[in-house]
Amino acid sequence: MSKHPDSFNCRKTLDVGGKPYVYFDLKEAEKNGLSGVSRLPFSMKVLLENLLRNEDGRTVTKDDIQAVAKWIDDKGSAGYEIAYRPARVLMQDFTGVPAVVDLAAMRDATNNLGADPKKVNPLVPVDLVIDHSVMVDYFASPDAFSKNVDVEYERNRERYQFLRWGQSAFENFRVVPPGTGICHQVNLEYLAQTVWTRDVDGETVAYPDTLVGTDSHTTMVNGLSVLGWGVGGIEAEAAMLGQPISMLIPEVIGFRLDGKLPEGTTATDLVLTVTEMLRKKKVVGKFVEFYGPGLSNLTLEDQATIANMAPEYGATCGFFPIDKDTIAYLEATGRAKDRIALVEAYAHAQGMFRVDGTEDPVFTDTLSLDLSTVVPSLAGPKRPQDRVALTEASKKFVEALAEIKGGRKKNEEPESTGDSRFMDEGATGVNDTPGQVRHKVEGAEHGLAEGDVVIAAITSCTNTSNPNVLVAAGLVARKAFEKGLKVKPWVKTSLAPGSQVVTEYLEKSGLQTDLDKMGFNLVGYGCTTCIGNSGPLPEPISEAINQNDLVAVSVLSGNRNFEGRVNPDVRANYLASPPLVVAYAIAGSMFTDITSEPLGQDKDGNDVFLKDIWPTTQEIAEIVRETVTRDMFETRYADVFKGDEHWQKIDVSGGLTYDWDDRSTYVQNPPYFEGMAPEPKPVTNIEGARILGLFADSITTDHISPAGSIKKDGPAGEYLVNHQVRPVDFNSYGARRGNHQVMMRGTFANIRIKNQMVPGVEGGVTVHHPSGEQMPIYDAAMKYKQDDVPLVVFAGKEYGTGSSRDWAAKGTVLLGVKAVIAESFERIHRSNLVGMGVVPFVFAEEGTSWQSLGLKGDEKVTIDGLTEIQPRQELEAVIESADGSKQTVKLKARIDTLDELEYYKNGGILHYVLRRLAA
C-alpha cells in the first residue's frame, strides 16, 4: 500500500491506546487540494477514503479522486465512473451456494486452460451465513424447532457437504452454520466492525468497514454506519476475486428526521412510512443518508430497521453516520474494547462522527419527516411501498380484493358452494362481514372465509433484529392470553428470530412462554416466511382455499410481500410489526378493523380491543433494559463458526477441486465455461431474434428467478421426477440454486407471472413461433435453441425489482436470451444481466414501449451495431411483424461503464476474471 501514489499527501498515522494505525486522512487531503470535502455527506466520505487508499494510477487515478471532491459543486449529477473496493463480502446460502459452485467450476476451467487452480481463491474476506434453508414445516408446538432442523439437514445434506468442502478448500472464506441466525442480523450483531483493519507490509491499516452482499438487504448494516449494499452473486464473485466494483458516483438524497415517535407506534410503522415516501421520491440508484435531530430519538436497531428496507424504497443504501449510539451499540453487543476505541478515534479524526447542532452536509436533494406524525401501519397486499394506515386496513382490503379477484365488484357477494351452517360462524366481530360465506374445512369445527389470515409470521431481518418490537410482540401475547384470547384455529403461526440472542432475551424475560401459549413457538433461525419458506398450509386449509377460490391473507413482519412469494395458496400479503402480527393472528381476518372492533371476548364475556393489550413504550423499554445484555452476545457468538452436532457430523470430501457427483440434484458443474478459449470470440449482432416474453411494469426478480416451491407438473418438477426425486422431497428452488438444470427450468416460471403474449393466463407460459403453439417458457426456449434462434424479452418500467437474485440473470442467459428491452431497470438486475453477457436496452425515446409499438410477440427482432458497441450507446432495432412489415426503434444500451463493456465482450464477468487469472 505504501508503494501506491498518494497525490494528496494524506497517508498518516493514528495512535489509539498506544497502537499505531495507518489511515488516509480526509482533513489532510482537504488541506492539500480537495477543498470542501468536509461538507460531503458521510456516505460520500467513505467512498472518497476508499479511492484515496486504493489510488494506483490505473484503476483509481488522481482525476477519480478529484471527481468525488467536485461532488460538492455538482451534487452527484456528473455520472462519473469510479472503481470501488469493498473491505469484504457477505453471502447467504441461496446465493452463496451458486457462488461457490462457480468458484469450483472456475478451478476446473483454470485447470483446463493450463493454469494453477490454486489461483482461484477469495482475495477479500468472505462470510457465508446459512440462513435461507430452514422451512416452517412444523409450527405451534414445543418441538417445532428441533423437527424443522432435522428436516432441514435431511433436505440439504448435499448442499451442506458442498459448503463444508468450500470452507476447507478456499482461503479467506468462513461459513456460519445453520441455526445461528439471519445473515444481516449476524452481520449487525457480530461480523461488522464499523472500522475495518488489515495488516499490510508489517503495518495495520484502518479504514471504514464496507461490504457488498449477495442479498439486497445487506443495507441493514448501514444502520451501524457500515456502507454496504446488495449485488448479484455474479458481481460479488468478481469482488471477492479482487475486481473493483465499477459504479457511478451517486446522487445522495438527504432524509431529515425531526421529533420522536408517538406512543403506540413502532419502528416498523416508521420504516413503512419512510419506504412509501422514498418510493415516491424515486431514489433508484441513489444513496439515501439520514440526518437531523430526530436521529437522537431512534435506537440503533431502529436505524438498522430503516436501513434494511433500502431495496424496498429503491435506494442503493440507507446510510446512518457514526454517533454516540453507534459506540454504545458496539459496546452492548460485545465488540472488542480496542476496536470500539479505534472506531471512536478514527471517526473523530476523519470528520465522520455525527454531533447534534453541527452544520448539515450538502445533499443532492432532501426530504423530511416529523417522527411524531407516524401512525400504526401495514403495507400490502402485494408491494412493500403500498402503506396502509391501520385504521384504513380493512376498508382498503375490501377495495384490493376486487382487483385480486380479477374485477369482482367489491359489494358483490362471492359465488359460493359454502355450507350455510358455516355462515358468520365463530366469535363476534370475526368474519361477520355481510355476505361473507364460510366454507367447510375438512375435519375441522371451523370454516374458512375470504380474507381470513392463514399465516401470521414473526420473521425476517427487518424486525427480528429490533428488541423493542419483539418484546412488544411478547407483551401483546402475554396480555392477550391473560384476557383469555386465543389465536384463530386456521392461522399458521411462527416465530423465526434473526439470531440466538433473541431467544435468550425472550426466555430471560418470560415472554417466550407467553408467545408459545399463543402458538408463536420457535420454528428456526432464518428468513423463513419472508423468502417463501413458509412451508405448506395444513392440507384441509389449502384445499378449502383452492376449491373455493378464496383470497387468503398472510401477515408477516418481513420486508417482501410480492405476489406468489410467501405461499402459493396466499394471494394477499401484508407487512406489519411483530405485535400487529400477533394481533391479526387473534383477529383471524383482514375484514376485521382491529382499531375499532373487538379482537374477541375475555373470560367474562367482555369485548377486548387492541388498545387493551397494547404495551406502552415504557413497559417495552424496561424489559429491554433488564434483559438485553452484553454477555448474551459474547456467549452466543463465542463459537459462531463451529455449528451444532448436525453440522459437525457432515462428511467432507474433495481436495483442491471439487469431486462433482453426476447424480446430485442439488449441485452440478455449470456450463458457463464449456469450450472457453484463452481469448474471447468477437461480439456479433442479434439477427432475427424471437420474443420469449412481453411483460408489463414492476416485473420482479421473484417473477423472473426461480423462487419458492417447485410445481410437480412444471419443467423443473418433471426433471426432478425423472431423476427419482419424490415431490415431497422437491425442497425449494432456493435450495437447488447449485443445479443449473433445475434453475433454468424454473426461470420465468413463477405462478403469478403474466406474459402478455398469452393474455389472461398466469404462470410461465409463452407462444412458440412460427408454430403458434402455447407451451412452458423453458420448453419454447429449448425449441428455439435447437433451431439456433436467438431470443429477446420485452418489459415495462422497473424491470428486475426485488432481491439481488443472480439466477434471474443466469437463467435468462441459459434460456438463450441475448437482450432484454425495457422502459427502465432496477440497478442490481441490470448489472447482473451485463455480468452474464446479456445486453439490457432501454427505449431511447420517452414514451416508447412495446405496447406503443403494437407488439404481439410473433415479431422478429434484429439489433445491429453491437460489434462496435460503447457504453450507453444508442442503437437501432428493426422489428419485423408476421405480415412482413417493419418498424425501426431507437434503443440505448445500458452497458454503463468501460468495465461492463469488457465483461460483455468476454461473455460475462466470470469469463473476464478467469481469463485474467489464467493469463
TrEMBL record:
Keyword flag Oxidoreductase: no
Catalytic activity: citrate = D-threo-isocitrate; (2S,3R)-3-hydroxybutane-1,2,3-tricarboxylate = 2-methyl-cis-aconitate + H2O
Residue numbers spanned by region Disordered: 405-436
A family per Pfam: Aconitase
Domain Aconitase A/isopropylmalate dehydratase small subunit swivel: 719-845
GO molecular function, one term: 4 iron, 4 sulfur cluster binding
Cofactor(s) needed by this chain: [4Fe-4S] cluster
Pathway the protein acts in: Organic acid metabolism; propanoate degradation; Carbohydrate metabolism; tricarboxylic acid cycle; isocitrate from oxaloacetate: step 2/2
Record keywords: 4Fe-4S, Iron, Iron-sulfur, Lyase, Metal-binding, RNA-binding, Tricarboxylic acid cycle
Biological processes per GO annotation: tricarboxylic acid cycle
EC numbers: 4.2.1.3
Family in the record: Belongs to the aconitase/IPM isomerase family.
UniProt cross-references to NCBIfam families, sorted A to Z: aconitase_1, PRK09277.1, PRK12881.1
Function noted in UniProt: Catalyzes the isomerization of citrate to isocitrate via cis-aconitate.
Record's protein name: Aconitate hydratase
